[in-house]
Structures are given as structure tokens and as C-alpha cells.
Diaminopimelate decarboxylase (Thalassospira profundimaris), 421 residues
Amino acid sequence: MNHFEYVDGVLSAEGVSIPDLAQQVGTPFYCYSTATLERHYKVYASAFDGLDATVCYALKANSNQAVIKTLAKLGAGADVVSVGEMRRALRAGIAPSKVIFSGVGKADAEMREALEADIAQINVESIPELIELNRVALDMGKKARIALRINPHVDAKTHEKIATGKAENKFGIDWTRAIEVYRDAAAMDGIDVTGIAMHIGSQLTDLTPFREAFTRLAGMVEELRTHGIEIKNLDLGGGLGIAYQGETPPLPDAYGQMVRETVGHLGCHITLEPGRLIVGNAGILVSRVMYIKDGEAKRFVILDAAMNDLIRPTLYNAYHEIIAVNEAGDGDKMATVDVVGPVCETGDTFGKDRKLPDTLQPGDLVAICSAGAYGAVMSSTYNTRALTPEVLVSGDKFAVIRERQSIDELIGLDKIPGWLD
Ligand code: LLP
């Protein structure tokens, strides 16, 4: 459910018409809906009512300060994977006690800053990282609260580039070695073992792999107890998928129920790290049609947005619905088109063989849907295209929450060495 709807045949974000926004902000731009963000957060969080649980929003999905702050106001914590994301979370008002630092390789400086900020937990993903964190913590005269991220060797049945829980994936410590690593960790003076973490992948549309992984995790917590290692915090990661193309992912309530069934009896605090589910369908990428080219094989709709603005279609063959901002009337003919960007790569294609109104013309607007997660955050300046602005709507108000970068600013980042003068 989202708050992008046609009102009198024109797409609106809550109470704001998209063409009005386009006129004021220019195109392309990302547009997010506060009501949708809030709704998703609340529906997700309420699935864990009655459990001792914290929802730590995974900033990587969309780390705009305004988005984080919207969620922080509802009580969200943060899952961060870099010192940059940690600063974003803290700056948006999330308490350090609700911040978890995940990620496969943390630099010394990141560990130091995290320990200095006294965040809730650092999730450690390998033995060398554990040794390093112990060293840094001792050096600072501190004890680092940690979870070990365990790789449960479970196939999440998602796109190979976003599956993280299989033996061949770089993530976490193999579950078969976990007990031994926990015992090592417990013996380190700079380490305070508080938790266990898992994240098996993203865009999961079935509960079975989660169930398998969490059952394994519960068994490990019980086994650790027999070794005198008390786990207080279970970090279950994120990963619950959303509908991009008619998928029917499990609802948060069903996920919450499965969490209760698999780990509810352990008496631990539970952390959840949803990203996509909170922001994915709360955002669209709005773009203007520049040209329509009738080729011999195809009709191409050429947009002013490109793969640098939204990389998911070309990187993961991801499907994003594309709709005309002016709704097609009942009797309108639809044309079959490829929707492409202007970047010089064949992969710069948002969608193939899509249906858009036959009347679509240069100057018209389209919306690329479900672009709130892993959209703006993964954008680049490829082809020296400036970063796209982001807009947040709330009711009939809107605010530009990231300005359009100027091309001069972008070029200004380069430096010419003296010898070339
Ligand atoms: N926790 C950890 C440790 C993660 O690695 C991730 C995502 C999440 C939580 C949030 O997962 P979510 O709830 O959003 O599925 N760029 C890719 C997705 C990469 C996900 C990486 N990790 C995409 O556009 O599909």
C-alpha cells in the first residue's frame, strides 16, 4: 500500500500533484511519501508487539536525513554499515543505544568512532575483525559489545547478488565454527559478547529460508548457553521483500509470527533490520520523456533519467513498474515500448516491452515505481550526470530534501596536478 495515486487522472503523492512538483523541482527527481513511510514502519513494528524488540531501520536502503528523521520520530533505531551511515543516524536524532554497526569489514577508525559514540552493538563478521576490534577496544580502555554474524548456510532463494547466507557468500562466520569463535571472543578482554546476528539476503518472498535460518540460530543460542555463553540480543537482519511485479511476499504479521515461533522462547531482546520494506514502495523516480524513437524493431521511450539515477534494473535485472503520470483513459490505446535512459550503454534500460499510452509524447512525465529503496543511495554521476534531487511529501506539503547537484560542483571535485598547468 502506498500513497501515490491518480487524482483526476494525474498522479499525486499524497496531496501534491507530481506535475506541480516537476515544474518546481525539474526532472528527474525522487519523490518520497511520508504517509507511506510511516505506515510501513508502523505495520512492520506492530508485527512484534508484545516481544522485546527494536526495529533498526537499515539505512543503506535510503539514508537521506529527512527519511531517517521521519522514522526516528516513530521510534526507529538504525542498522548502519559505515561510519558515514553511523553519523547520519546519530545526526538524524537516533540514540546511540539504538544503533547497530553491521558490515563485512570495518576499518580501525570506524571501530574507534563507534566505541567512542557508545552505540548498542558492533556485529563482527570474521575472526580477524574480532581480533582487530579487541585490539582497538583495549587500546581505548573500553569493552566492545558485539554480536557475531553467523552465516547459517541457508539459500534465501533471491537474486544471487543479494543472497548473503550461503557458504559461498562472503558474509559472517560459518555456523559450523560459531561455537569455537564465540569461546575465543568470550575470552577476549576488550570484547563483551552480547548477541548473535544473521541476515540471509534481501527481497525474500517466502518465509521458509527465514524459518530455517532462525531455527538454526535458536539451536545455537541454546548450545552457547551450555557453554556458559549467554546471548542477550538476537539480530535477525532484514530481507523481507516487497511487491515489484505482482509478487506476494509474506505480510509483516506472518513474519512476526514466524519470529515468535522460532526464537520467541529464548527470552532474548530481538533486533530487526528492515530496509526495503520500509522505503521501497514509499518512493518513485519521476522523469520526463525526452524523445520517442520508432526503431525498426521497437519503439523507444527515451527519458531524462538514466541508469546512474536508478541502477537496479541493469544491475539485478530488477523490475520496476513504469507508469504515465497522466493516467491513460479507458479507451486509450497502449503501445509496447522499451523505456530507456540517455546513457551510452545498452544496459541503460528501465524496462522492456512495457505498456504505456500510445499518446505519450516528449515532455510528458512518467514515474518509475518502488524506487524508494536502493535508488538514490546507489546513484552515481556516470556520464557526468549530476546527482538527482530528492523530495519528501507530507500531506499537501513538500520539501526538497536533497538539492540537485550542479555540474560545476561535480567537475569542481576534480583537481588538475600542477604539472599539467
Ligand atoms: N541488514 C543487513 C546486515 C543487510 O546487509 C541488509 C541489506 C539489510 C539489513 C536490509 O535488507 P532489506 O530489508 O532492505 O532487504 N542493493 C540491493 C539490496 C542489497 C541489500 C544489502 N543488504 C537491491 O537494490 O536490491
Summary: Residues 58, 60-61, 79, 102, 162, 199, 202-203, 237-239, 273-277, 312, 316, 374 surround LLP (CB under 6 Å). The chain has two domains: 4-30+282-413, 48-278.
